[in-house]
Write a structure and sequence with these properties.
The chain is α/β, with parallel strands linked by helices. It has four domains: about 110 residues, Alpha-Beta Plaits (2-Layer Sandwich); about 100 residues, Chitinase A, domain 3 (Roll); about 180 residues, Response regulator (Rossmann fold), CATH 3.40.50.2300; about 120 residues, Response regulator (Rossmann fold, 3-Layer(aba) Sandwich), CATH 3.40.50. The protein contains 15 helices and 24 strands. The strands form four sheets. It has a nine-stranded mixed β-sheet with strand order 13-14-12-10-24-23-20-22-21. The protein has a six-stranded parallel β-sheet with strand order 11-19-18-17-15-16, with helices on both faces. Strands 5, 6, 7, 8 and 9 form a five-stranded antiparallel β-sheet that branches. Helix 9 links the parallel strand 15 and strand 16. Helix 1 crosses helix 2 and helix 7 packs parallel to helix 9. The chain is globular.
Length: about 575
């Protein structure tokens, strides 16, 4: 076929992919027929379920997978025919207009630059010498010390000073009227580092905890907020906390902290999948026994996220409990050792369904089996490979009967029908990733937006001078992934928290002060090889990336492998 490549900007290209609708429909029918051989349904023998029933239950999810597969194949073929050296993964978007009887998609991507190497036989090479001065070394050490600094609260009688981290409430008004973005609570910044306008920065110096102060502030004419640019505002500021910075000494311990094994991974925001499994089985059993207090009024059982840090001097970070690495490893080993290996018991059987296959869910499985053993019931742990597989497993459970289902839905927006059917037939709860619009009885897990927010704040803490950040995640159609990513972005950019906000996954996002830049979000669809390739690609395309943030449990180890391969083990990596 003829491939037309459109050049957008620099290395960015776009091609249009046209797929015959018949090709899609035929493949959907082929896969549905294959499914029909094993599908179970009330009133029908296995393998004898009518195609109309199979299509009604699985048609959407099968079509979703077929389109993804065919678009991927078409892109690979087009790129090969056009001899394109594609860098990274394309961004695919369906076009509103397409030829009759076809579907059309735009694939936007970048290519590697063409490098022309001439005759090197007669080339003269200049040997360049770089002098590393004492001043350059001192500057680099100062930056490294700042990246590892800690803060401790000042005495109540001491006022805020240069390099202190302050937490304030503020409200600004122009001509007596509030304005958008002019109010915040528990807002945090470091004095003297250019995070705030100079007048604001100077005004809080000397303030003590509990002090309130009103002062005028003139916004610059070229201020990024056009609605307030050039105008004068009156700000009321109340000081909530004043913390003095402590820089580490330059010694052997400091030098050791620069190595990847001991210090480059800044920290990990950890969930508690063991408790997801345990609480899911425990809650389903309580519902089965008719216990009225099994479900909280909020319909949310919070299993708070924790922060694992190599630095064991902190007790908490951004309101979350800090757990030293050694303590976390020991506790996890004990949980796994005591989790049991079989779902033995004479009581009813409950299903614990994950959203994929991962080490994370091995821990969740241990929790489910431990609860089953403690309660004398049975637990069937199911780890599906795809949305179609997960939907089919739910249908199978409903056909043979189950006392309750706890599920982490892969794509709740497109699984509404099967989730509603499950809720009508048995007790249905969600864990890890919610389906808030479904009739589930309760969600067990952490607030993924809040966990992401903590992660973003950890990035800011690791990069006080700002920098470019790349995010990595499995997929973005899950509720937990969307909320976790958004929380992380808001935390990095220092925004006012807003769990309803959704930033474009494909765009570059910058903080208001310009210090932090999120380059994008790279997805891998739970493909480990792709996840590692994403990390390698990010390092290649963005050599100045300052932090790489893995938002699913398997992302950080693969990021570290990519860093090791590239010989860059001093960049922060955050999970």
């Amino acid at each position: 076929m003829t491939v037309t490549v459109e050049t957008l900007e620099k290395l960015e290209r776009r091609i249009t992919l046209v797929l015959p609708a018949d090709t899609i429909n035929n493949e959907v029918q082929t896969r549905l027929k294959k499914l029909a051989r094993t599908v179970k349904a009330d009133g029908f023998r296995p393998g004898k379920v009518p195609m109309s029933v199979v299509a009604q239950r699985y048609g959407y999810s099968v079509q979703y997978e077929v389109v993804n597969d065919k678009v991927g194949e078409a892109f690979a073929k087009a790129a090969d025919e056009a001899a394109l050296k594609v860098a990274g993964m394309p961004r695919i978007s369906q076009k509103d207009e397409a030829p009759e009887g076809a579907l059309a998609f735009d694939a936007t991507f970048e290519v590697y630059p063409e490098v022309q190497i001439g005759d090197l036989a007669t080339a003269e090479v200049e040997k360049v010498k770089a002098e590393v001065t004492d001043a350059a070394i001192d500057k680099t050490l100062d930056i490294l010390r700042k990246q590892r600094r800690t803060f401790a609260q000042r005495a109540a009688a001491e006022g805020a000073a240069e390099n202190d981290r302050v937490t304030i409430d503020f409200e600004g008004k122009i001509d007596g009227e509030p304005f958008e973005g002019g109010k915040a609570e528990a807002f945090q910044f470091i004095i003297g580092e250019g995070q705030m306008l100079e007048q604001f920065d100077k005004a809080v110096r000397g303030m003590k905890v509990g002090d309130s102060k009103t002062f005028p502030l003139q916004f610059p004419a070229d201020y990024h907020g056009k609605d307030v640019a050039g105008k004068e505002a009156d700000f009321l500021v109340t000081m909530k906390k004043v913390e003095q910075q402590h820089l580490p000494e330059i010694d052997d311990a400091f030098a050791k902290s620069l190595g990847i094994a001991d210090g480059t991974v800044v920290g990990t925001i950890v969930q508690n999948p063991f408790q997801y499994g345990y609480k899911s089985i425990e809650t389903l059993h309580s519902l089965k026994e008719g216990k009225a207090d099994a479900i909280p009024e909020s319909k949310f059982m919070n299993i708070p996220a924790r922060v694992v840090l190599a630095d064991d001097s902190r007790q908490e970070f951004a309101g979350a409990e800090v757990v030293p690495v050694a303590v976390f490893r020991e506790a996890l080993a004990k949980l796994l050792a005591g989790g049991g290996t079989a779902a033995a018991g004479d009581g009813p059987e409950y299903a614990f369904i994950t959203n994929g296959v991962a080490d994370f869910w091995t821990i969740g499985k241990a929790g489910a089996l431990k609860a089953a053993a403690d309660l004398g019931v049975k637990a069937a742990v199911i780890m599906p490979s795809s949305i179609t597989d997960q939907t089919r497993k739910i249908e199978d459970l409903l056909t043979r009967g189950t006392a309750g289902i706890a599920i982490s839905p892969i794509n709740p927006a497109n699984q509404g029908e099967v989730l509603a059917k499950a809720a009508a037939a048995t007790n249905l709860i969600t864990h890890d990733s919610d389906a808030p619009d479904s009739p589930r009885q309760v969600y067990i897990g952490m607030d993924n937006y809040e966990a992401g927010l903590i992660c973003g704040k950890l990035v800011r803490d690791a990069l006080p001078d700002g920098g470019k950040v790349m995010l990595f995640i499995g997929r973005l159609d899950q509720d937990n992934a969307q909320r976790r990513r958004q929380g992380c972005i808001d935390g990095i950019l220092g925004r006012e928290p807003d769990a309803s906000r959704r930033d474009d996954p494909g765009g570059v996002i910058k903080s208001a002060d310009g210090k932090y830049e999120i380059l994008g979000t790279m997805t891998d669809q739970f493909d480990r090889a792709k996840a590692k390739a994403n990390a390698e690609d990010a390092l290649l395309r963005h050599p100045d990336v300052a932090a790489m943030v893995g938002l699913f449990e398997y992302n950080p180890p693969l990021i570290l492998e990519a860093l090791e391969r590239a010989g860059r083990l001093v960049r922060p990596a955050v999970q």
